[in-house]
């Protein structure tokens, strides 16, 4: 849609949605092997899912020890640190929080030690009934040291542990509501669990000693982390499934008969690493297909198509294939600046946006540019990039977006602004286009997004096709009231 209106918006943050967590767990069959280095590799590969805190808990000799802190994986763990984390089974976590980045109490995993043993929990997701459950536990005399949903989960498991691990897990999982991908470490087992809708991803991998000294099983948020630790993807954990791994077996059972797959569609748009496979779908190719769909739905005459690094680049390639528009780099991303949301104040955020992306003038000068981005949330980055491109001599800048307009908040583990702060909720595309300074603006359709993720969604009435679209449509897979 071409711009004709004139509307100004007050922007107070950057233009990206943020995943809250990544989880990783490994169980090695050789009790003498220490697996902390493999957890480190796995967490390093999941760093994109959370940059505010990280931790590793390992089990050895019926005892769980933990090391965690505020910062990036490479800042918290050194070779010396890892050498002191002993155990043949371990879980790890990287975290992004909404408002307590400097709160060490909320860093994960959480560990509980009690008469019957020890457990550690790492959780990706968000419980919709966490406050209610927390209050019930507090009334029963159980104390909390953090504001995290994950501490609610570990306290529930600990409270029910006298019934045995499997029953404690089942009772806990049936009591909580919302989204969760869990890895749980006990003195002698590793457990994975995924909510009945599979909103947050979790997969199972295997590592053997053909090419490694390790032999065992891995649980991770994404397949890229399994590969980083030297393993191979076996399959995804199914919605409503629990997997218990010990030295004798890998036990799997379903804790919910009412499962309806509703995987977060933003995993494919932005969150997941492009080399990951989630629920059998190749993330990189889904982004290529999204660009191709954008080209078919809203192609425009142009001299060059460029993508906003990193997730917009595959889509730009797909757009170029579909429209015949030459693909170029155009924008260079500064790899040595943190994501702009880490900045604490508005002026710092604006400066961070300026330092994050740079334009290759010789590539864009005098050309009509199609700029492909994964999403527009508040508009800060998009507005700045349009300005930079035109300052570099671009004749026209046409924005194409690989997701539909984000108009509703997420309640399942993604940091979204309040609805009033979502720029697509406050303006129609024509007004938004003018606000961003672009020559035209178009979003992929909901149907087009679904088809790009999964070709089986290509019917005229695809429904959700097994994906959560709540932030686009306001229709959520479970009640959020």
Mind explaining what this structure looks like?
The chain is built from 17 helices and 25 strands. It is an alpha+beta fold and 481 residues long. The strands form 7 sheets. The protein has a 7-stranded antiparallel β-sheet with strand order 4-3-5-2-11-10-12. The protein has a 6-stranded antiparallel β-sheet with strand order 6-7-8-9-13-14, covered by helices on one side. The chain has a 4-stranded parallel β-sheet with strand order 18-21-22-24, sandwiched between helices. Residues 4-14 and 339-344 have low confidence and may be disordered.
Structural class: alpha+beta
Q: Judging from the principal axes of the Cα atoms, what is the shape?
A: globular
Instruction: Name the strands of the widest sheet in spatial order.
Output: 4-3-5-2-11-10-12
Please state the oligomeric state of the protein chains shown: single chain
Q: Tell me what portion of residues adopts beta-strand conformation.
A: 25-35%
Number of alpha- plus pi-helical segments: 17
Give start-end ranges of low-pLDDT stretches. Answer: 4-14, 339-344
The Rg value, from CA coordinates, equals 23 Å
The tally of beta strands, per DSSP, is 25
Helix content, binned percent: 25-40%
Q: What is the CA–CA distance across the termini?
A: 35 Å
Q: Kindly state the mean pLDDT as a whole number?
A: 88
Largest sheet: 7 strands, antiparallel
